[in-house]
Amino acid sequence: MTVRKLTHMAVLTAVALTIFVLEAQLPPLMPMIPGVKLGLANVVTVYAIFALGSGPAAMILLARVVLGSLFAGGSTIFYSLAGGVCCFLAMALLRLAMTEKQMWACSALGAAAHNIGQLAAAALLSGTWGVFAYLPILLVSGVITGLFTGLCAQFLLFRLRKLHINGKEG
């Protein structure tokens, strides 16, 4: 791994962590439904999968989840890891079949996988599968926010490519 690629990954991790911390300060999108949020830090994960590959994207995601959980405190690491890993695995597999022009779809499906992973973690931690009653609402909100973050990541990738900062080197 080149110094340039490592630096690119470090900057992306810092950006994702900053977005995560800032988004945590925002009021809930839907106060009556816990867990609904934009997931803006996922813009970085989607971008990284398509620009740098799955390996570097996994490292960026794990660093953000661990560091973000340290800032957020509590048991958030279990939910973040479960959702993040499910989302990442779905997007990494979809990346094999999707082009950069389909990042929005990859992100939307990854968001759905994220919600399923978080609900599975909640079910295991709470000892009840009743939390899956939230699944339809979380899937709809997750797909909508996933479309948004995917479009943002797609715009970012194409814009940075235009500026010749694509991260594909070394």
The helix-and-strand class reads mainly alpha
Mean pLDDT level: 90
As an assembly, this protein is single chain
Strand content: under 5%
DSSP helix fraction? over 70%
Distance between the termini: 6 Å
Strand element count: 0
Largest sheet: none
Rg over CA atoms = 16 Å
- What is the ordering of alpha helices and beta strands? HHHHHH
Return residue spans where pLDDT drops below 50 for at least 5 consecutive residues: none
Give the number of helices. Answer: 6
Shape designation:
globular
In short:
With 170 residues, this protein is mostly helical. It has helices at residues 3-24, 42-51, 54-72, 76-95, 103-126, 135-162.
Describe the structure.
Helix content is 72%, strand content 0%. The N and C termini lie close together (6 Å).
Notable traits:
single chain; 170 residues; mainly alpha; 6 helices
Please specify the SSE layout and strand pairing.
Elements: H1 3-24, H2 42-51, H3 54-72, H4 76-95, H5 103-126, H6 135-162
Helix pairs in contact: 1-2, 1-3, 2-3, 2-4, 2-6, 3-4, 4-5, 5-6
